[in-house]
Amino acid sequence: MNNIKYYYKKKICNICKIKKLDIFINENKNYICNKCYNKLYNKKINIKNPINLNKYNPKLLKKEIDKYVIGHNKTKKKISVSIYNHLKLINHNKYSKYINLYKSNILLIGPTGSGKTLIAKTISNILDIPMVITDATTLTQAGYVGDDVENILLRLIQKCKFNIEKAEYGIIYIDEIDKIAKKKYNISITRDVSGEGVQQSLLKIIEGTISSVSTFGGRKHPQQQNIQINTNNILFICGGTFNNIDNIIKKRLNINNIGYNSKKKNLKEKYNIEYKDIIEFGFIPEFVGRFPIISKLQNLNKKHFIKILIKTKNSIIKYYKKLFKLENINLIFKKDAINKIADMAIKKNIGARSLKYVIENILFNTMYNINSIKDKEIIIDKNFIKNQNL
Length: 390
What we know:
Blueprint: E1 5-7, E2 11-12, E3 19-20, E4 23-25, E5 31-33, H1 34-41, H2 58-66, H3 73-95, E6 106-109, H4 116-126, E7 131-135, H5 150-159, H6 164-167, E8 171-175, H7 196-207, E9 210-214, E10 226-230, E11 235-240, H8 245-253, H9 260-264, H10 275-281, H11 285-288, E12 293-296, H12 302-310, H13 316-325, E13 330-333, H14 335-348, H15 353-368, E14 377-380, H16 382-386
Parallel strand pairs: 6-11, 6-12, 7-8, 8-11, 13-14
Antiparallel strand pairs: 1-4, 2-3, 4-5, 9-10
Helix pairs in contact: 2-3, 8-10, 12-14, 14-15
């Protein structure tokens, strides 16, 4: 039975007569399921069965993301479809010797605190496939001080405990990708080693190649042992704020910021980002072309902030309630307090991250004096917030 081959499509086992997905073909072209094979030959074939796609269809994926991320419905739909297709790619390419499917990398553009990284972290928690989140600001062109782009792959390999086959079907999220835009007006006196140079270095691993990665990270040299990893099926999600890209879009659409003409235009058009806008921002066409899916996240408003505070599964209010519960104290947030917190957070202009900052300051004195508090219930209302003299 040395010539056992795995068969991807469902077939009826010639022994138990049950139609199953985990079917093997022996040299006599008989179909044998994994269970019957174990009984017949007293052996086990340690091969991972395909992922249950019904569990991760796009609608169910979006429903799970909705529990943690408020707003951005169009982006969440795009992400859910792309992730679902990635799971199909894993199933197909892993077990089929015929035509390969190709990944669809994703580029997320949106203001700080809008939820780009949170979406990536949520996907990581939902899926049973490895995912790492890294930062583009540490990357430099090979040969210069900083991280080589291959170190991104090393983090994924380490996450998979050096199981290369598992890592080759993982997801990599690169944050702050806009920081590697080409530096305009960069005269050839100095090289743009953290801009266009990094874009050039990332091209191959994002599209798909056999990459050589240093076992211990850092710079590669001929004497050290390197790991070979195929990036053809690794899905890349990149996110960045892309400050002032709206001005580039307005210029392309000939929209003025002020005046009567600006009102006549449908301003929703400004959110339709095209490749030419990202190229104008400072990315080389070859790099942009590696991302067939581009989605723009909008600023969150007060209604979004209130939903983040009370409706999300990882709500900040739930976190602080749990924190006080450990001291046997019930923390109660009134509706007027939640409205006030949302108003204060919006003024910070740093997105949803400001919510934790605001609540932390509101509760600071209470938490500092926690051991001397005798009340078993603390009510946070508008007057409580006012008395904190923030």
